Every structure is written in C-alpha cells, then in structure tokens.
C-alpha cells in the first residue's frame, strides 16, 4: 500500500479512497496532526461508505491510516464550530460510518489500527465488523477529560462488548489501554506486530470478498437484528433470509461448486 499522497492538500486533511479489486480502501490522511478528524474528513469518510454501499462491484471496505497513528480523535476546535452552527457531524445524505442512524451499512468493514487510537478510532473499531490492532496501539476514550461525552456510539458499544464495569473503568477515567487490553475488552479481534496490521486487514477483507455477497450482507443484518431486537426477531429474520438466499443464483453456484470440487464464483445475484 503506497503512502504517496498530495502534499499540497488542504490542512483539514482528507480520506484517500482507492479501489483494490472488490475492496474499497479508505485511508485517514492528516498525519501532521496525528490524523485528527475535521468536519471535512468526517464528510469524506461518509462519502466513501456511501460509495461502498452503492457500488455492486465493491464487497468489503478497509479503513486504515497514513503515518504513525490511527487518530488522536476529533479536532475539537473545528468540530465545535460545526456543532455551534447546528450542523450534524455526518451529512444527512451519506451513510454514517459509525452506524448511528439509518440507512445502516450492509457491507462489511475491516479496520487496521496503530499507534495513538483515541476516541474516534475506538468508535470506528467498535462500529466496524473486524478490527486488527498493531501491538503498539494506545487506545483511549478521553472525552471526560475534555468536559464532553463520547458521541459516536462508543459508550453503548463498549458497555455491550466489555460489560459495565470494564467499560466504566475506561469511560469514567479517560485512562489509556493497550492493544492486549483492547483484545480482552472485545474492542479488537486480533493483535499483530506493528507493520502487519494493514496486511492482515486486507487479507481478511479479501477472504470476505470471496464469499457470496448476499449471504455476507444477510449475516450482518441478522447479527444486527439480534443486537437490536433480540433472539425471536433474529430467528424470524433468518426464516425470511433463508428463503431469499436459497432462491439466489449464488446459492445455486455454491451447490454446483461443491459438487464439482472447485472454488465458487459468486456474482452477488
């Protein structure tokens, strides 16, 4: 993955969007400010998620960062100005990268984390489907140190993943925790040596992209149905999804590939 970028870009940073086959790479690019998120960057990340959702050729997204760190969080002076104007952090006509409102993302996201990974990084990790952390990660949900509240879904998701006491240990103190503690708290799914996090994230994204797209999306939807509405709603969703998937061309291809002892060629139909 090349780190060559436009060095004359705006000081408010950018999200570098690259297509790699069926994977959409989304690079956080403001390393001179430890990748602090500006309104421009949030808007561009949302646009990238909208592209992922709308393009049938894209099957998985990967979020990563340029430089040594994922992000130090939101650029508060710039974000405060946006909030003072009463404007949302995420444009209403784009897909929310943090899945805080509909339309909810249907395609999977893998995120690669490294170095300082505060606030926004934790929220992105918790809202992604798979998170890979380099072993030098320094996580923190530090909003209480700034007199504000974590507003990108991090509180509820950390309580859900880690349990009340484990979550409050960090939410109420703003204390840092490392990659291995993030693994224990279920914030990330793997810890790898520094420098291998993006390679591993892409590897998993490529593996996901090989699967039947409709089945992948139905799996995400069913998991979300369980989290939001419970067991019975999840079971009812499975019954509907099963009928639709068994009638798909991809299900037919899956059976044919099994019989012919060859890799399947899924088309998303």
Strand proportion, as a percent range, falls in 15-25%
Structural class: alpha/beta
Overall helicity: 40-55%
CATH superfamily grouping of the largest domain: 2-enoyl-CoA Hydratase, Chain A, domain 1
Give the ordered list of helices and strands.
EEHEHEEHEEHHEHEHHHH
CATH architecture of the largest domain: Alpha-Beta Complex
CATH fold call of the largest domain: 2-enoyl-CoA Hydratase, Chain A, domain 1
Regions with little confidence, pLDDT below 50 for 5+ residues: none
Tell me the count of domains. 2
Radius of gyration from CA coordinates? 19 Å
For the largest beta sheet, what order do the strands appear in spatially?
1-2-3-4-6-9
CATH class of the largest domain: Alpha Beta
Q: How far apart are the first and last residues' alpha carbons, in Å?
A: 31 Å
What's the total number of strands?
Answer: 9
Largest sheet: 6 strands, mixed
